[in-house]
TrEMBL record:
This is CHASE2 domain-containing protein. Residues 21-118 form the CHASE2 domain. InterPro entries: CHASE2. It comes from Leptonema illini. The lineage of its organism: Bacteria, Pseudomonadati, Spirochaetota, Spirochaetia, Leptospirales. It comes from the Bacteria. Pfam families: CHASE2.
Length: 120
């Protein structure tokens, strides 16, 4: 095998390993914890557009509320209360940057669904 073919094979193998890592749980965790944080740090803080309020759910908020640091595991009743409160304050649109993939406690899920329905 010539040096050129070895280089091509090595490059393809490295690319395949990189793709496999990217789509693995470890790769996604690395991207979330390092890649995304680095991009936000490089960009720096930016003000919200006029007429928009961004509510940041951070680790301080979770500890003050006595809730887990992983926001996607919060009881959906908390999200329901946020939707109701934001709507009462005049929010025209409410968006969550959280994956609501798995079912949680049925009554909390129903409360969240009802709050979304009330908000329109």
């Amino acid at each position: 095998m010539t040096g050129t073919w070895r280089g091509i094979c090595f490059g393809l193998l490295l690319a395949a390993a990189g793709i496999a890592l990217f789509f693995s749980p470890w790769g996604l965790k690395i991207e979330e914890d390092i890649g995304l944080a680095m991009l936000f740090q490089l960009r720096g803080p930016r003000p919200a557009p006029d007429g928009m309020l961004i509510v940041n759910l951070d680790h301080d908020a979770s500890s003050q509320l006595g809730l887990p640091e992983n926001f996607s595991t919060w009881p959906r009743s908390i999200h329901a209360r946020m939707v109701d409160r934001l709507k009462d304050c005049g929010a025209g649109a409410i968006t969550f940057d959280v994956h609501f993939v798995e079912e949680r406690k049925a009554e909390d899920d129903l409360a969240f669904a009802a709050a979304i329905h009330r908000a329109g």
